[in-house]
Amino acid sequence: MNIVVCVKQVPNTSEVKIDAETNNLIREGTPSIINPYDEYAVEEALRLKEAHGGSIVAVSMGPPQAESALQECLDMGVDKAVLLSDKSLAGSDTLATGYALSGFIRTCAPDIVLCGLEAIDGCTGQVGPIIAENLGFTQFTYVSKLNVKDDYATVHREMKEGFEVLKCKLPVVVCVLKGINQPRMLHKSTKRVQVLKPGTIGLEEQRTGIKGSPTRVVKINVSGKSDTSYVKIDSSLPAEERIMAIMNGGLKVKIIALKRGAPLDMAKLIFEDEDFQALLP
């Protein structure tokens, strides 16, 4: 079984910086991580290989620093990792990105292409379906379970009210959710990432980079930090009451100033308290 898994290196969402002129994310010099959804896609690829044999190629498109994300894939156990990297690819939107990735994926003749549901820096969920359209493969999104048997893939897709079970013949593109599995620990690999230029796989220049991107970022508004709230459940309550408190959002923590002193002094403070006086007849 030939498996290709698509991954992306994304900025650490707590450190996002925006170019004021281009409205693009500043990736160079910005702390980055492997897209969390893609870790589950890599793990699912590894489990398929363990069950059915074959090989796994991880692919990404991005600047040279994206090699570190692909190296993590090699450290997880994939057989090969390829980075499509060139200045001509800079500024690609999801359409151009999907086209470039599908150009490489086609050379692998895969049975299954695995993607994370979406990248956390854009949250469009479009690249997987665009790859499927370019390749002419059946696509499944929001997948929480995947089984392969006798050249057929069976998936569970999460819906608003339950899930649906679908089955089709390979090849397919599958976009997975977090929680479909538990990604394994990394083990340092001696394998290294291969870097390819778009010309080596026959990509059309007018369909890549800014030239091939019909969408433009016109403006980005960075929202303010949201307030963090905390809840507290009284551990002395019976289990049923604690469960109900959790379901109802818990109990808001009250900040209480603690006072210390002699009993008579403390009694005086209590009687002078406005909340206590409101209870008096």
Write the SSE topology:
Blueprint: E1 2-6, E2 9-11, E3 32-34, H1 36-52, E4 55-61, H2 67-76, E5 80-84, H3 94-108, E6 112-116, H4 127-135, E7 138-149, E8 152-159, E9 162-169, E10 172-176, E11 194-196, E12 231-232, H5 239-247, E13 251-252, H6 263-272, H7 274-277
Helix pairs in contact: 3-4
The helix count comes to 7
| CATH topology value of the largest domain | Rossmann fold
Largest sheet data? 9 strands, mixed
What is the molecular shape?
Answer: elongated
Q: Brief description of this entry?
A:
This protein has 281 residues and is α/β, with parallel strands linked by helices. The chain contains seven helices and 13 strands. It has two domains: 2-207, Rossmann fold, CATH 3.40.50.620; 231-277, no CATH class.
Report on this model:
- With 281 residues, this protein is of the alpha/beta class.
- It folds into 2 domains: 2-207, Rossmann fold (3-Layer(aba) Sandwich), CATH 3.40.50; 231-277, no CATH class.
- The chain has 7 helices and 13 strands.
- The N and C termini lie far apart (81 Å).
Keywords for this entry:
9-stranded mixed β-sheet, 281 residues, Rossmann fold, single chain, alpha/beta, two-stranded antiparallel ribbon, 13 strands
